[in-house]
Every structure is written in C-alpha cells, then in structure tokens.
Design goal:
Belongs to the BamA family. By secondary structure, the protein is an alpha+beta fold. The protein is 16% helix and 42% strand. A 16-stranded antiparallel beta sheet has the order 19-20-21-22-23-24-25-26-27-28-29-36-37-38-39-40, with no helix packed on it.
Length: 821
Amino acid sequence: MMIKKIALAVLLGAFGSTVEAAEVFKVEDIEVKGLQRVALGAALTHIPFNIGDTLNDFRISQAIKSLYRSGHFNNIVVSKSGNRVIFRVQERETISAITFEGNKDLKDEQLNESLDGSDIRVGETLDKTVISGLETGLEDFYHSVGKYNADVKAEITHLPRNRVDLKFIFSEGDAAAIKQINIVGNEVFSDEELLEHIELTYDSPWWDFMAQDRYQKQTLQGDMETIESYYLDRGYLQYKVDSTQVSMTPDKESVYITLNVTEGEQYNVSEVDFIGDMAGFEKTIRAINPLKSGKLYNGAEVTYTEETISKFLGRFGYAYPKVTTIPDINEEDKTVKLSISIDPGKRVYVNRINFKGNNVTADNVLRREMRQMEGAWLSNSLVEGSKAWLSRLPYMETVEFETKQLPGEDDLVDVDFTVKEQASGSFTAGIGYGSTTKLSLNAGIQQDNFLGTGNRLAFSINTMSYSKSANISYTDPYFTKDAISLGGSIYYNEFDAGSANLVEYNNKTYGVGVNFGFPINEYLRLNFGLGYKSNGITRLQTYEQIQRFYELYSDPNNPDGGLEFETFDVSAAISRSTLNRGTFPTAGSQQSLSYKMTTPNSDVNYFKVNLDTKWYFPIARGWSVLTRMQLGYGNGYGTINGNDQVLPFWENFRAGGSDTLRGFETNTVGPRAIFRYPTTITGTPDPISGTSCCLGPDHDVVQASTRSVGANAIALAGLELIVPTPFIDEGFANSVRTSLFIDAGNVWDTEFQIEDYKDLAAQEFAKIHDYADVGRFRASAGLSVQWLSPMGPMIFSFAKALKEETGDDTKFFTFNIGKTF
C-alpha cells in the first residue's frame, strides 16, 4: 500500500498538485473550493465521478488530470474529510490587456491575429506554456528574415481580482548582411551570370538602396528556385541543388551563403505524347500544345503547357484537372520523351453563388454582373470574368472569390465572392477653395451606388469665381435585365469666361437630356442620347477668330445686344473597357469614341467627335504604366445666309489643368484672341472737328490676348509611371495613387488662316502665331498624387513645363477636386 501511495504522489507531482492518499471508499459529497470566475457546475462537469461512486487513488488522479485539461486552473489539491472529497483549486488568471512594444517588422494587427489563433486574447485565461511557445515562434520568424539577434519576451503584470496585463517586448535588431554568395559545381554558367537573376545580393554600392543585401530565408528559397528554372529552361533536366550552407559570423551580423549544385547534361525532346482522358477535346489539346520534338527541353514551356491544358479544361466544368508531364530520359542520346498525363476529373457544377462584404450594395446588384450561372458547370473563365465585372464597379475596392466543394458531393461547389466596398460618391455642403476656382460654395450629392441599387444619382448646386450651376441627373445601368441603361439630366449654368482664363463673355445655359445604352458584348457598349439646350451670350468681346460667327448671328440694328440660341442635339458613342478595376485600375484598357451633332432645325448647326483611350500595363506589384490619348475635332455644317456655319466658340476644346495638361493653368493652352485695330490720322483742314482718315491695312496694329479662346481641334497624350505611395498603410493603398508623368498636347484652330494677315507690316505680322500649325505643342512633367477622399477625388500635381510658348500661364503646383486618370 505504501508503494502505491508513493507512485500516486509522483504522478500528481508531475501536475504541480498534491493529494492526500485515500483508501477505497464510497463518496458522500464533492466540494470544490477556490472558485471565482468558473461556475461550480462547470467545474463538476470535469470531475469524472459522482456522489455514491466508489473511489480509489487512480480515479482521484484521473479527476485531477481532467480538471487540468479544462484549462481553467493553475493548481489543484485534493483532500478527504470522512467520505467527502474536497478539491481546492487556484484558477488561472484572466488576461486584462495585451500590448506590444518595440515591434516594427510585425504590425500590432498581425500579432493580435497570431495570438488569437492560440486563444490568447483579452478576457481569456492565461496559459503560460502557450506564451513560452509564442516567444520561441516569434524569435524563429525574426531568424528567418536574418535578424539573429532578435529577442522577444513576454512580461506578465499581476493585477487585483486574479487578472494580468500581458506585454510583449521586442528587440528586433538589424538583419544580418550577406557577406558573400558562392555557387560550387557550376561550369556551364558563371557565378556572375546566375547571381544577376536572383534577388539577394552582396557588396552593393551605398547608393543602391533597392538592393536585397540582407539575408532572408524565404528570399533565398525563391532564388534557389529561380536558378533551378534558369537551368531547366535551357535543357538541363537533371540539375539539382545538392546542399545549402548558411554560415553566420560570430557577431551574428553577417552570413556566408554557399550553394552546391550539379548541372547535369542538356536534353532534347525526342517525342511528346498524351495519355489519359482528354474529355473529348483531344484534337484541341494537341493543337494548343507548344511542345515539339527535336527542340531543346524547356521547363517553362512544360509548365506553360500544363497550365494551358488545365485552364482549357476548366472552361468546360472540369474544375480540378490533373495534368502532369512524365519525363522518360534516355541517357545514351541525351533525349527525353515527354508523356503528358491528363485526368480531367469529374465535371463540376455550381450549386450556389454567395456574396460577403456587401454591407451597402444589394445582392441582386452584384448578381447581375455574374457571367457564371448557378446550376451550370463551373467555368474558370466565366468566374474570372464575373470577378472582372465586379471589380469595374466604381463602388468596389477589392473583389476575391473562392470555390468550396460541398460536403459529401464531389461534383458540386459553391462560389463565394468576398467584396470590399469603397466610397462611391460624396455629399458636400460648405465652402471650398481651389487654385483655379478660388472661393466656392457648394452643396450636393453624387452617388454611384444610390441606396445600394447600383444606380447613379447626382444633384448639385455650385457657385465659384467663374460659374454658377445646378444639375440633377439619374442613370439606371440595368433599366432592363439585358443591361440596357437609361438616364436623364436637367441642368442650369451661368459661365463667366473671363474669370476662367478665357476671353471674356458670359454664357447662360439651361437644358435637358436623355441617354440610352446597349451592350454589344462583354466589353463593347453603344450609347445614344438626345438633348435640348438654350444658350444666352452677353458681354461678348469680339475678336478676329469669332468675327465671322458674330456677323452671322448678331443683330445689325443692335450690335451690342446679346446672342440667343436654341439647339437640339443627337449623340452616339461606342466604348470598350477591359480595365481590372473601376477606380485606380492597374491593368487593361479603355476606349471611347463619341459623336454629337445638332439637328438641322437648331439655331446653330455643328458637330463634334472625340476619341479617348487609356492603356494600363502592370510591370510589378504596385507598379504599372499608363498611356493615354485624347483626340477631338469639331466644326459647323450647312450654311446660313449663304455662308458656311462654324463651331460655336463656347463649344471649343480647351486644355490646361489637372485633367488635361498639368503644369499649365486651367483652360489657358490654345490659340489666343487676336485684336486688329486700324490706325487713324486727324484731318488737317478742320482739326477742331476731329475729322479723321484711315490708313491702309499695312498700318493696322495687332494685339494678341494673354487668354485662350479654345479651338476646334485637340490632341493630348500622356505617359505615367504609377508607383507605390510611400508612407501609406496597406489599408489605404487602394484610395491613394502616386505617379510620375509626362503630358503633351495642344489645341488647334483648323480654320485659322495665317495668310489673312500677310497684309500687315512685318513687325505686326510677327506678333501672330499660326494657330493651325500642328507642330506647335506644349509639354510638362512632374508628380501627381490622387486621393479618393470623403469629399471626392482630389488631385495634387507638381509639374514643370518642358515646352511652353510666350505668354503661357504655368503652374508648378495645382490641386483640384474632380475626376482621376
């Protein structure tokens, strides 16, 4: 019996507990003392016996183990009073707060997520054994990125009421620098040739701040795969890394990396064969196969072939095909036979399409963008297409999807789309200031996702230095289930051209319009519109370029009176978009060709055609190139009083500003107004009466304005390098864009005839530029930051004019609230 008691004491000691030895007896009562947070009923559920049961030492030890496994207690003591069993427990402390200090490489959010995965969170009990493991795991992470001197300690502060504060203190240190990288066993390719293809470097110059000269285990692993691919792509089928050594200096501040490799021989492809089930697509699969016999073995080409066949089968419902290339090496003639094994698996169908994260947008708004249908077979191209259409919505920031196989079903999946919405409009009311608009008062709402319906509503009242306007518009992009759109607008505007850097005139406009849109295919769309507009022109400062227009429409009996026009217009446009996102895209393109003309019964007859195109080319994560171009032309048609009609001056194209030519003041780029004044002399017979006489045109005086009048043709082009925005948290990366740009272009007057001024004196003729000369253009370069603020898109531009003309109003810094590139 004594031996049994000793054994029991040893067993219980392993759990940090004590128990008084007990003989076999029948339990009359069970007590648990020391409970504070844990309810008595919860504790009793972990005791594997009840009143009336017969106990011995073994069953008591089992009860202690069970209570420990509950995770609620630090210490347990069991005693016996008569036939009563008494458990005295000490509960584990509850975590009151978790804080971090000294962590830079790991964000608080990442650490909290890691702790949460180990059930270490505020309100839970503290398990010190888990804390110790976390310390070790975090230090291992730092070692993997080359910080061998890193240290992580958990500091526990005990608080009243059995609570603790948990504080992790980080000492990260610096990553070990790579002293040297050696490759041993390579004969075909030199160290320099191989190392220039990998990320890790050593002995980099001080100015190369992009160099990866700090050791990171994951980067090294990726570099080893890069070197392996380099050999495989050149026919070295049996290349392998025999060993890798990473040696640390005693001070743990530097490492030496050595790769021991075996290159092997080059192999040519002797034959390409297909085995397995090709699901009835044998002819097509053989046709899309790029692998050919007689060519040098290429690992990248083999991988591409496998992916191409898998994606092709995925278009027809074979969601999980297995495509494997089996090499059969012939060492005698150094050739390899490639057998491509294909197992399409079962055709998989879509059970349900689900959406998560759409807190504002209604499900049906997202569902109407789906190209993949429920009940149909799963097509990877249709699912990717659905993602692309969702991403192009201006109120979506990110879109991801996941296919989940239904439990117990090998041919049914759910497709779960997870979206992150972004501000799709703005409500404004207040006072603003802009570098061009000056003081402005505004109130309005613009919403691309009105009440979560996906419809666009805009209502605004604005007043600024050169314009007063009121506008309301509404567009339903899915007026019918076939994606036929319907929209309309009513507007009123008072425009002071002189305050907008243009030659002076006032234009009071009001009108109404309606438009329809029709999809042609996944990318192309047709739009048609009808409109009515009334223009009232006053305070018109006449100049040479509009003299003909003014003479056509002015009242000879009231030459100082205003001009009034009523026009009815029809418009048509075709647009194409393959952009990967609706806002701040990084890949794809967008083109739009539009045409507008007034109807013959309008007071003025004219037409305008405009082409806009943008191309985005991704080059690296966070980096992409944007090229854009705008071409526009307008003119009058028909005659009035026997004279050809011309484009009304208020319809002229204009350039300059944040959305056309940055670095130039808004609307200032283009032809200047020309004023021509005859020279007069006072007659000598009667000087008192002021009799005067005109001299010939060669004595006329010419003056060109400092302000632009716009013109009927425009050409703009731009090139931008979009770069990651520095000092911006990852959560804001999709709402801020930074780019380096070059803008170029001009506005031309194709009706301008420089020959009309050849009768001027030479010094006066020299004052006139040929505004029809297409060789004249402006250019600028600079930095642009675009921010999707709660008030709307804001553009900040720092630009330097590279090519300008005399009198141009250049601006180094401009900001604007409006559209983004």
